[in-house]
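Reminder to self: tokens first, then the designed residues, so the page reads top to bottom the way the pipeline ran.
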């Protein structure tokens, strides 16, 4: 937790950003904007700036972190503001530390040719972490514009060999940067977002990993995204036997989830461990099919017969469905009835999902972005496509607070790349009607996402 001095510094940092919202919202829209950011409802009277300032002043210190996360989802931030907020947020979450000497050794070990295979991607990474805000002249692409961006393009891209990686790091300010930003920069350099070539990814890892080990840090492969390995910088003492917990699901009661280590997706289920399932296999570009889920169940439960494993898994998932929601029960049962023998190759319909560990989500919105959401059902489709299905009872519409919470959850999920579809409980509670509704829905859904339900 941050101390009082840091709280004061945080408020001073975000105050001009919050006050700047007055230029983007009308008076009547301020309450909704504040709610979305996690700020208290603003007063009715005063100018927009006065109302926003009073809202920030009324925010408890404990709520500053949530407001920072909300602000990072806004498009109004300058590059420098976004970096400052991200540095603070990552520092609070915890990070490994890389001393300046080790940073220089890493720079000397890197080959810029590996990093600049795709010049546009390379400049995007530098823009995200280091380059100053673009001004009017750079937007006009004036080639003679002095400044860091022009220097990088000249000495790294147009005249390879002018600068070494060490020269580049020096000019960027990477050697003196806060630890969280340098760590994320290193992870970006070995990511497929920069280098969509696994051989080059692993060559870069092989270059920097020996340097990091002197600081008690290593590059760890933590999963797969879009078919490429995902790497993270973690303490070298972390056990290798522990697999990433990619999915926590199938529990009627909310499990107590905690991060054992803030720089790795090492998640501990503290409470209700016996009532939750934890899928700990890497999720590749094909998503999670029922066959994948059944194979995992069969191996982890030491079941020798595939049919027995299928029945046991199906029954276990049915047991996780809430007793007071026939609509959810019908959705799950009818999905398997409608598609029958085709189900093993279809996306698994995962009920009562409490956590989906997604490298994209973590990168965009922070490691705890989805911890506060429970999804009625989650489908992980091929090519990183993610679909959430919710079954809403009448209280979701008659209870204003519940309705507002649902709408906020939808926004957060959609901003994190999830498609959200809601069903009214009334249309699913009778099996005969529900089957027709669901068959039409899933056929359209699979058509949209290019999933072949009958293996054509």
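Designed residues (456 positions):
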């Amino acid at each position: 937790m941050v101390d009082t001095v840091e709280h004061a510094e945080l408020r001073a940092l975000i105050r001009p950003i919050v006050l700047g919202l007055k230029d983007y919202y009308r008076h009547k829209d301020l309450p909704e904007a504040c709610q979305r950011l996690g700020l208290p409802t603003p007063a009715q009277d005063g100018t927009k700036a006065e109302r926003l300032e009073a809202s920030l002043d009324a925010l408890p210190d404990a709520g500053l972190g949530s407001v920072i996360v909300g602000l990072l989802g806004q498009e109004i931030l300058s590059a420098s503001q976004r970096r400052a907020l991200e540095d603070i947020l990552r520092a609070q979450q915890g990070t490994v530390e890389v001393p300046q000497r080790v940073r220089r050794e890493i720079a000397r070990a890197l080959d810029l040719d590996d990093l600049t295979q795709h010049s546009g991607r390379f400049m995007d990474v530098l823009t995200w972490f280091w380059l100053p805000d673009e001004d009017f002249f750079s937007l006009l692409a004036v080639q003679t514009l002095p400044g860091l961006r022009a220097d990088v393009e000249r000495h790294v891209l147009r005249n390879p060999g002018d600068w070494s990686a060490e020269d580049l790091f020096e000019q960027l300010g990477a050697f003196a940067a806060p630890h969280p930003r340098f760590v994320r920069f290193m992870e970006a350099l070995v990511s497929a977002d920069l280098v969509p070539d696994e051989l080059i990814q692993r060559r870069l890892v092989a270059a920097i990993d020996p340097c990091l080990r002197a600081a008690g840090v290593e590059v760890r492969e933590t999963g797969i995204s879009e078919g490429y390995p995902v790497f993270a910088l973690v303490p070298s003492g972390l056990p290798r036997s522990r697999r990433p917990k990619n999915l926590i699901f199938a529990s009627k009661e909310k499990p107590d989830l905690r991060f054992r280590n803030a720089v790795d997706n090492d998640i501990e289920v503290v409470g209700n461990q016996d009532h939750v399932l934890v899928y700990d296999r890497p999720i590749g570009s094909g998503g999670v099919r029922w066959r994948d889920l059944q194979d995992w169940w069969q191996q982890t439960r030491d079941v020798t017969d595939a049919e027995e494993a299928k029945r046991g898994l199906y029954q276990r998932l049915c047991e996780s469905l809430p007793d007071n929601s026939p609509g959810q029960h019908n959705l799950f049962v009818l999905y398997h009835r409608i598609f029958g023998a085709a189900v093993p190759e279809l996306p698994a319909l995962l009920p009562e999902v409490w956590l989906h560990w997604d490298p994209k989500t973590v990168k965009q919105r922070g490691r705890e972005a989805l911890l506060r959401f429970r999804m009625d059902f989650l489908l992980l489709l091929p090519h990183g496509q993610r679909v959430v299905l919710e079954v809403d009872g009448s209280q979701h519409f008659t209870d204003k607070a519940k309705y507002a919470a649902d709408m906020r959850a939808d926004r957060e999920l959609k901003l994190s790349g999830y498609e959200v579809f809601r069903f009214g409980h009334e249309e699913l509670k009778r099996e005969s009607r529900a089957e027709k509704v669901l068959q039409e829905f899933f056929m359209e859904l699979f058509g949209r996402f290019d999933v072949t339900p009958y293996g054509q």
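The first strand starts at residue 217 and ends at 225.
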